[in-house]
User: Fold this.
Amino acid sequence: MNHCFVKLGAVVFGAALAPLAIAQVKADGQWRGLGGASLSINSGNTDSRALLLNVDMARATERDKITLGGMINYAKSEDAAGVSQTTANKWAANGQYDYNLTARVFVFGKLGLEADRLVELSLRTSLASGAGYHLIQTPETTFDVFGGLAYITDKYRVPQTIGGETDTRFDRFALLLGEESSHQLSQTTTFKQRLEVYPGLSGDKAVIAKFNAGLGVAMSSTLSLTVGLIDTYNSKPPAGLKKNDVGLFTGVSVKHGAL
Assistant:
């Protein structure tokens, strides 16, 4: 069973955006961000509906930075015989605080929450902290690398078998290794991506990787055409499930504040 949600070139209502699509945030203490909703409806031999809600906000000063984000993704299809199937039912929320020790070195704390009804994951909690380094800091490009330690708890609605163990809760300590970059490709085009890898150190020792990317093309001072990609990898998923879960979507983003 491959729970993969793909929505590209769909009929879009309102606005949709890629997670982490904020290209760069001015260090003036003001909240800025992107948010919206996307709805796809298809009718014919197969009826389908897909909804995606997203928000990403950030506030930065010369000393620190707060980043908040959230996502809800729901999709359902029905064939000509009237058999319906839910193809996506998940949500995620995250927050991170960065504190600059120097112009290049920073420390951070991060909390992530997510759930996926299709794989019976009622809640995954990840708490991480560590340090990072600003490799590139220019008006056009930023590039950070970071690392630390994390504690991850997976809670399932029903017992799952992972690594030969059957339970509804799995806990692990893990390393956190990652990188993040943003690019002002032109006056109207921005790109941002972030990769996080969590190699397990205890418990089932699963390796979890998360990749987010967003490309935005400005249509006005507040609206941008956006294409986004979300890819989550779990080396030890519950028995019978795929290791990879990919989402691809397009839409229009709405800005809050001057980015």
